[in-house]
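User: Okay, second chain of the day. Same drill as before: sequence in, structure tokens out.
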Amino acid sequence: MTDEWNKFRHYFKQQEVPAKTLLLAEGKVSKTMFFIEKGCLRTWVNNGGKEITTQFFFEGDSVSSIESFRTNQPSLYSIESLEPCVLQTVSQTDFLEIIEKSPELRKELIEHLFRRLFQAQQLFYTHLKSNPQKRYEELIEQYPHIVQRVPQHYIASYLGITSVSLSRIRNRK
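Assistant: Same drill. Structure tokens below.
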């Protein structure tokens, strides 16, 4: 955390959660933002009973259903831990107060949101334009440690393929 964030450290609460902990359920309103000190989270949607992983988050990332967090509308997706995690959490109310008190952090938040929007656009266009092999290569380039930390069926879901197809892709390497 930057010095500016440290000024507001008293707003944060540390939370340790085991793997496979549901932090936010799809359809519930997000009231908490998570900052990952240690561990891995994923976001996912339910499509007719099938979980589709939409994103992975690791140390140094912040996670919330930002649309829900800002608008009090139900979240479009769930947030779950994939590993035991150490998280710093801040409530919606406290976060809004922090952003109100600190123009520097408000600017940092805006930059963060633009980066996330850009990442989401990249992911969307990659899914449209690239084959699964290319998507897998880009994922490994972005997160070289992902295959050691994330179960294969989540990676396959994220890539929009079956675990069997992912095994074939990995065996070609």
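The CA atoms of residues 152 and 163 lie 7 Å apart.

User: Thanks, on to the next one.
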